[in-house]
Amino acid sequence: MLLFYAVEDRSPWFTLGFSAACVLGSTYGFLQGAWPFGLVEAIWALVAMKKFSRRRQSSATSG
Description:
- This protein has three helices and no strands.
- The chain has 63 residues and is mainly α.
- The longest helix is centred in the last third of the chain and has 28 residues, at 35-62.
């Protein structure tokens, strides 16, 4: 997750990878019973997906 976050400015696909890592972290949090962690990671996943969507649209129109 940290690696994808560190390089996400290089490509929208790294932002998607960050979102996927957040989903995995959220799933792990919920499964172990740490629901606040799972909830925060789920929110980060949604934020990253929105960012990915905006970055894909802007790269498609500029390219």
